[in-house]
Amino acid sequence: MAKTTAPAADIPFEKALEELETIVAKMEEGKLPLEESLAAYQRGAELLRHCEGKLSAAQARISILEGEVLKDLPPAES
Question: C or N: which end of the chain has fewer Cβ atoms within 10 Å?
């Protein structure tokens, strides 16, 4: 994680997901030194929050077709 990385909020969803997958793969190898593992975990958490936010926003914008009318998808119940 030595290179400078852009804030997660500035990265398109697909690039953030790709970076997150790379981080997970590196961490699963178990060969990162402790400090790099901590930095990777922190960056991964940031990217995960960013991706989840983008997915939530996209879900809120999805429309469904009912008959001839497009209607907004109702929010998921918690």
Answer: C
Q: How many CA atoms lie within 13 A of 72 on its CB side?
A: 8
Decide: helix, strand or coil at residue 70. Answer: strand
Q: Which structure tokens are listed for 29?
A: 């190898």
Phi, psi of 72 (to 5 degrees): -65, 145
Q: What is the mean pLDDT of residues 69-77?
A: 66
How many other β-carbons are positioned within 10 Å of the β-carbon of residue 1? Answer: 16
pLDDT digits (tens, 9 = 90+) for 11-48: 999 999 999 999 999 999 999 999 999 999 999 999 99
pTM: 0.72
| CB of 1 closer than 8 Å to CB of 40 | yes
Cα of 44 vs its chain's centroid, Å: 9
